[in-house]
Amino acid sequence: MKIASGIVTNKGGRTSHAAIVSRELGIPCVVGTEKATQLIKQGQKITISCIEGDEGHIYDGILKYSIKKHNLGDLPKTRTKIMLNLGNPDLAFATALLPNDGVGLAREEFIMSGYIQVHPLALLNYDKIKHNHEHHELIQKIDRLTESYHDKKQFFVDKLAEGIARIAGAFYPKPVILRFSDFKSNEYANLLGGQLYEPKEANPMIGWRGASRYYHPAYTEAFALECKAIRKVREMMGLVNLEVMIPMCRTLDEARNVLAVMKKYGLERGKNGLKVICMCEVPANVLLANEFLDLFDGFSIGSNDLTQFTLAVDRDSTLVAPIFDERNPAVLHLMEHVITIAKQRKKYIGICGQGPSDHPDLAQFLVKCGIESVSLNPDTVIKTRMLIAKAEKS
């Protein structure tokens, strides 16, 4: 995906993996076409356009286009913090040049798939796998990636820390909120060795992901490597602007379990100024907002999953994609309610989901509700900042 000029897929919705990563890479992407691979021929020159309303267009041939330039010095200031969504460390320093108040969502998944490429449990169990002749080809691939490392676990820690540090360093001293790994089981399975450890789930989107993995006996040692990498960035490199965020935390017991595991591996909330944020992406997070905020330093609304679970719409499904809308009254009600509770508790409340990047009117609604920060895809920062400034004046 890094070398593509644009991406077109047959399946997926606006919040699918292809769409999210494409936006982060700054390349146009049209998803859910159903038949693009049949209609577009190998070597055919096409133009992909994503600026004509809600639907993307693919044109035959190379079309002319115009470029709009903005003087960053002329952009209005806003009370609402404008933060960025970012996962690719290679883009961190360039992205940091945009007007911003930090990173509201730094994703580990890009680092794991691009920098590390190996499933953490395959590295933890390297010696066992090595003595199984059936996995000879897998071991060769792992060895090529980790050739300078005798301790394969340290490879994971160092590479993850390197990617995280590049993001935290690029934005220092502004806050960088790092979300712990949130691959689904089918995505983890695509890492080298992943199929040895991942279950085949009927619906990975609502399965073994996020918080439920971190304290589970089958994965907690892998989560320990993430904690070790974060400690390295904060304690050895001194990048204490790094905060952490727990995704898909379904119950209060899960929250307590994850915090206990983090503490066991040296990441304790409040120690050395460490802030721990909970993603608000399950209706239970909203309904029990006070209880969750007793355990965390704040919420970051994940509008993609909050919409998915409120409307019972699989956001990876092309068939029901038209139903998916973060502006549905039920979703807006939940967002407004959790913002009110967080403000009453004087806790951090932001949003890092796709919604405000796609829908300016949603960004304006959140500002009127009093949200503290809006975290955006880099390509929408300038236009959304102007809209938010306008909303704050009205």
Q: Could you please describe the fold and organization of this structure?
A:
42% of the residues lie in helices and 12% in strands. By secondary structure, it is an alpha/beta fold. It folds into 2 domains: 7-60, 3-Layer(bba) Sandwich (Glucose Oxidase, domain 1), CATH 3.50.30; 72-393, TIM Barrel, CATH 3.20.20.60. The strands form 3 sheets. An 8-stranded parallel β-barrel has the order 5-6-7-8-9-10-11-12, surrounded by 5 helices. The chain has a two-stranded parallel ribbon with strand order 1-2. The chain has helices at residues 17-25, 36-39, 92-95, 109-116, 120-124, 126-130, 136-145, 152-171, 185-188, 211-214, 220-236, 252-264, 283-287, 289-293, 303-311, 329-344, 355-358, 360-369, 381-393; strands at residues 7-8, 29-30, 46-49, 57-60, 81-86, 103-107, 176-179, 242-246, 276-280, 298-301, 348-351, 373-376.
CATH superfamily of the largest domain: Phosphoenolpyruvate-binding domains
Number of strands: 12
* Relative strand content: 5-15%
CATH architecture of the largest domain: Alpha-Beta Barrel
Task: Quickly count the helices.
Answer: 19
Overall 3D shape: globular
CATH class division of the largest domain: Alpha Beta
Q: Layout of helices and strands, plus pairs?
A:
Blueprint: E1 7-8, H1 17-25, E2 29-30, H2 36-39, E3 46-49, E4 57-60, E5 81-86, H3 92-95, E6 103-107, H4 109-116, H5 120-124, H6 126-130, H7 136-145, H8 152-171, E7 176-179, H9 185-188, H10 211-214, H11 220-236, E8 242-246, H12 252-264, E9 276-280, H13 283-287, H14 289-293, E10 298-301, H15 303-311, H16 329-344, E11 348-351, H17 355-358, H18 360-369, E12 373-376, H19 381-393
Parallel strand pairs: 1-2, 5-6, 5-12, 6-7, 7-8, 8-9, 9-10, 10-11, 11-12
Antiparallel strand pairs: 3-4
Helix pairs in contact: 4-8, 8-11, 18-19
